[in-house]
């Protein structure tokens, strides 16, 4: 009985050690519909890499559930460009970076931000610095009060099929091995 909670706690260690900070979007760096918008972040070399990017809104009238923006994004890029944003105009959106293998493991979450109507002047800091690298994707999502969402996105992120293996940090792999070992031992003891 003791080992099941221990296994769950050990599985969370890689997420707890993550130092990723999503700097854009934020409460002052909103997104504008039908334009190019930036996701920017800082990180440490030991952080889980690659990551998947999702958008959520606490009000499911605007976005029902998680909306996947990109899979297997290399953190060293520092930015990700989202084009043709057609999210419903609203407040309360957040961008989260999640483990691409287990999307219940949230590595970082942005500040709450708004999506403004097309034609709104973009936030002044909404462009990446000249030295940054970015990856882009097109995203579209909508939600209804009936809870029936529709969404679409173009092919995203890293197209290297080995990214799922070669992009993970040693810290993340060790945490995964430790969690599997503890789970195995607890299964034998139960």
CATH fold-type name: Immunoglobulin-like
Number of domains: 1
Element string (H = helix, E = strand): HHEEEEEEEEEEEHH
Q: How far apart are the termini?
A: 7 Å
Overall geometry comes to globular
**Can you tell me the CATH architecture?**
Sandwich
Reading off the top of the CATH hierarchy, the class is best stated as Mainly Beta
Number of strands: 11
Which sheet architecture does the biggest sheet show?
6 strands, mixed
Count of helix runs: 4
Strand content: 25-35%
Unreliable sequence segments? 126-170
Gyration radius (Cα, Å) is 18 Å
- Roughly how much helix do the residues carry, as a percent range? 10-25%
Q: What is the residue-mean pLDDT, rounded to a whole number?
A: 71
Tell me the structural class. Answer: alpha+beta
């Amino acid at each position: 009985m003791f080992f099941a909670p221990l296994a769950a706690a050990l599985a969370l260690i890689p997420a707890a050690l993550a130092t990723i900070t999503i700097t854009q979007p934020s409460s002052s760096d909103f997104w504008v519909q039908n334009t190019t918008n930036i996701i920017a972040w800082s990180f440490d070399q030991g952080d889980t890499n690659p990551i998947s990017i999702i958008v959520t809104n606490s009000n499911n009238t605007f976005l029902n559930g998680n909306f996947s923006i990109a899979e297997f994004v290399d953190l060293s890029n520092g930015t990700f460009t989202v084009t043709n944003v057609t999210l419903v105009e609203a407040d309360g959106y957040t961008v989260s970076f999640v483990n691409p293998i287990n999307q219940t493991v949230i590595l970082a979450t942005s500040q709450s931000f708004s999506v403004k109507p097309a034609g709104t002047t973009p936030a002044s800091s909404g462009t990446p610095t000249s030295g940054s690298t970015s990856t882009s994707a097109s995203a579209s999502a909508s939600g209804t009060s009936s809870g029936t969402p529709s969404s679409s996105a173009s092919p995203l992120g890293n197209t290297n099929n080995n990214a799922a293996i070669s992009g993970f940090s040693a810290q993340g792999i060790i945490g995964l091995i430790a969690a599997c070992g503890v789970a195995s031992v607890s299964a034998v003891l139960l």
